[in-house]
Amino acid sequence: ARPEPPFPIHPRPDGVASDEHVGFSWAANPQALHYHFELAADSLFGSPILREDALREPGLEVTTALEPGIYYWRIAVTTADEGRGPYSDPQRLRRPAPGPVPDARVDGERLELRWRANEASVRYLVQFSTSANFSAPEFEFETAEAQLAIDQPPPGTYHVRIRGVEADGSISPWGRAQIVEVPYKHWRALLIFVPLLLLL
Question: Which CATH architecture has domain 8-95?
Fold first, then answer.
């Protein structure tokens, strides 16, 4: 007898991975000595992108960024009593293309963003952050159109990024961030300063 392959847990079959560094997990086998993992761009695993044969834990994170596309993964287990078992059925995984890159324009009291529409996206998530790492975005918006017009935010430098949301709820990776400069309204300061001069 040979040990049955572990049950794949994450990503789910035909799942979508938004993160560049994808995490994989499967059901633990209490008798496991180690697990075997393969990741490939084809279901026959002719040229695996990654192969691990000495995993002690029922999961791993791929540290190499995966390009958008279709991938397949499978796992097997080796136990002391039964030796190495067969691989599981291939699990299909999709890495969607990243979100679009916006063009920005400040028009009077409004800030306008436009970007190329993605046929797979039914809506878009937009973030504004004063920090490049988006650790705490100042503003977040959601729109069904490939454009966004908002009241001009406070003056300063903003990093803006977009990701798409598909009809089934799948979310794309964030697109490349753009830097948007919102100018200071010097004319308002001037209007305040002039009356003060008249009082002198």
Answer: Sandwich (2.60)
Q: Is the pLDDT of residue 1 over 60?
A: no
The two domains 8-95 and 103-188 share their CATH topology (first three levels equal): yes
Residue 143: in which H helix or E strand, if any? strand 139-143
Each residue's pLDDT tens digit, 154-192: 989 999 999 999 998 889 999 999 999 888 765 444 443
- Cβ within 8 Å of residue 129, ≥6 positions away: 135, 136, 137, 138, 158, 159, 160
Report the C-alpha gap between 154 and 43 in whole angstroms.
Answer: 51
For residues 14-42, give the mean pLDDT: 94
Domain boundaries, the chain: 8-95, 103-188
Cα 73 to its chain centre, rounded Å, is: 19
Beta bridge partners, 156, equal 182
CATH number of 103-188: 2.60.40.10
The conformation of residue 25, written as its DSSP 8-state character, comes to E
